[in-house]
Amino acid sequence: MKRFLKMIGLVSCVSVASLASAQEVNVYSARKEALIKPLLDTFTETTGISVNLVTGNADALITRLKSEGKYSPADILITTDVGRLYRAKEQGLTQKIETEGANKLIPRNYIDPDGQWIGFTLRARPMMVAPQRVDETQLTRMEDLADKQWRGRVCVRSSSNIYNQSMVAAMIEQQGVEKTQSWLNDFVKNFARTPKGGDRDQIKAVVAGQCDVAIANTYYLAGMASSDDEATRETASKVKVIWPNQQDRGAHVNISGAVISKYAPNLASAQKLISFMLQEDSQVWYAKTNHEYPLREGVKQSAVLRSFGDFKAEQIDLSRVGELNRQAVLMMDKAGWK
Q1: Apex 311 CA angle, 81 and 227, nearest 5
Q2: Neighbours of 201 (CB within 10 A)
Q3: DSSP 114
Q4: In this predicted model, what pLDDT tens digit does every residue of 63-108 receive, in sequence order?
Q5: Distance CA 170, CA 274 (A)
Q6: Residue 26, beta-bridge partner list
Q7: 119 Cβ contact partners less than 8 Å away, ≥ 6 residues apart
Q8: Which of 2, 136, 156, 235 is deepest in the core (most CB within 10 A)?
């Protein structure tokens, strides 16, 4: 903890003896404090292990881990998207997670084959439409968005966004390079505007009539639907979720999850925290608070997610999505996706 406090510029007047005897775990989190801290507080109450939390931008935290090297105080990095988890692994910033029974609690394709990262929740990225302007029978697959009938009708965020990169990487894995590049070339022609903003901005653009179809993660829509602001809830109510590819490969999904730092100073406590995050009560709270789908089988989804309907998800090995990220970016750039 002394090293941790020095690194983040907090207090330094703590006795070495008390630090040595205390059980703790240092967490770097790309999730906002309100979306993770109450659960970490419960972990402390349950185990007696104190949690030192630093939140920040996901890519910045990975860069920080790399620059700190063996002097990093971090035990765990919690972040979103398998592309980032894979990036941390690829840069040699992780070590094997030794969590007994994890494979029995969550599907194996949401755990790194080498045990270097693990998923906590599932994130889905379907299409969201203005129901009064879109004939759903004409939009059943993501591939349909390359058709000429959608010219000038699609909103999506930038190609620099990792959620889109992972979506394309998953297409490469399932459809192959040639088909995916062909789809990208035509898909880009159908953009209603130059990509800008986040997923919420794409949803708002559909409601404003700037486009008819948006690609966005469901947790953004769920957050809007659960907002304290009446106008935001009203906006969310005006779009409908369409689950693509339900007759073939399934809708694109990703995860939020964690890695254990290569130089974790509190390894045993880090392993305990990973196990805690997979417990049923933790899965219920974390998934509901973040408006994501629990990975643990049998854990109930939140009411707002259930309102979007059931869906068939992709069943690919998510490690391949991380591996194909660079190729996806190159292909998106070739297609002119800004």
Answers
A1: 65
A2: 16
A3: T
A4: 999 999 999 999 999 999 999 999 999 999 999 998 777 888 999 9
A5: 26
A6: 52
A7: 82, 106, 110, 111, 255, 256, 257, 295, 318
A8: 156
